[in-house]
Amino acid sequence: MPIPDDRLRLMFTCCHPALPMDARVALTLRTLGGLATPEIARAFLVPEPTLAQRLVRAKRKIRDAGIPYRVPPDHLLPERLDGVLHVLYLVFNEGYDASTGDALIRRELCSEAIRLARVLAVLMPDEPEVLGLLALMLLHDARRDAREGQDGSLVLLEDQDRGRWDHECIREGAALVDRALRMHRPGPYQLQAAIAALHDEAAAPSATDWPQIVALYSALASVSPSPVVELNRAVAVAMADGPAVGLALIDRIAAAGTLDEYPYLHAARADLLRRLGRLDEAAAAYRRAEALTPNAAERRFLARRLVEVGGRGPAGRVTDADDAPRA
Question: E strands along 131-246, which residues?
Fold first, then answer.
């Protein structure tokens, strides 16, 4: 079956298996995904110069090896699918959680990622990870409007008006998760979608099935291990078993140093310290998170949290904020 969309066709063309996965995804994001080099670097948790070098090496390999840029035939699409899925996943992430600037959400990126995922689901209806990725996008996008206050501020998941969620979108996403999981080939997108479904199907924050979410993060860590997955699992453990237990896990992740420049590690740690009443330590962690956060709205939230725990801004004065960090 021919690929019925020009942009998707080009993504399959760019995700050439002769390139390392990170290189093919980064190059496709830069060429077709609408993301700038700094945004791609943050998505890969690497310094911008490192990402720029990867792009240069990928282009050089294409040139030196004479790798042809042509649309692959149908039987070669599966070997490029993982790269294309990763591209769409990162495009949606940047749209849903804008990494820089004043806007919290880049709606055009969310919409385009979902559109392409729908095309891909028609093209490959028996690929469970395709269905899982589409479900994941829909289940998050269903909460999109409730994530923003009227003034453009970000509203945390636990504080959102669930009546503003798109429940038709939630039903569609949940049905896709069920359909994918019945194929008995679980993968990272399906597991993340299952986590998102548990959040969306809870009538109130207190009704969230945190033990099941912890179990799903444990499964995700086994099939797609990463420090960020472990951090998300630690936050879920904190919700299920208490902030002290979650903080011990986060401190262990922090000690490894891999996420030292990742603002959400420090923000999550600060929140648990705040909940435990360890306010001086919480203030230090909020300052670190604020210093690492490029999004202006998130920095304002972190500054407000800093005031709440009795801290002060980096210039020695109390700061102000009206936003919240990414959910």
Answer: none
Per-residue pLDDT in tens (0 to 9) along the chain, 327 residues: 678 899 999 999 999 999 999 999 999 999 999 899 999 999 999 999 999 999 999 899 888 888 887 888 888 899 999 999 999 999 999 999 988 888 889 999 999 999 999 999 999 999 999 999 999 999 999 999 999 888 877 789 999 999 999 999 999 999 999 999 999 999 999 999 999 999 999 999 999 999 999 999 999 999 999 999 999 999 999 999 999 999 999 999 999 999 999 999 999 999 999 999 999 999 999 999 999 999 888 888 898 899 999 876 443 333 333 333 333
Q: Which of 99, 169, 107, 184 is nearest to 136 (CA)?
A: 169
Asked if 84 and 16 touch (Cβ cutoff 8 Å), the reply is: no
Separation of alpha carbons 242 and 59, rounded Å: 48
> How far is the C-alpha of 94 from the C-alpha of 25, rounded, in Å?
14
Angle at 91 between CA 109 and CA 123, to 5 degrees: 95
Exposed, middle or buried: residue 308 (CB in 10 Å: 0-12, 13-18, 19+)? middle
User: Which residues are registered as beta bridge partners of 148?
Assistant: 154
Phi first, then psi: what are they for 105, rounded to 5°? -130, 135
Centre a 10 Å sphere on the Cβ of residue 32 and count the other Cβ atoms it contains: 17
Residues facing 154 on adjacent strands? 148
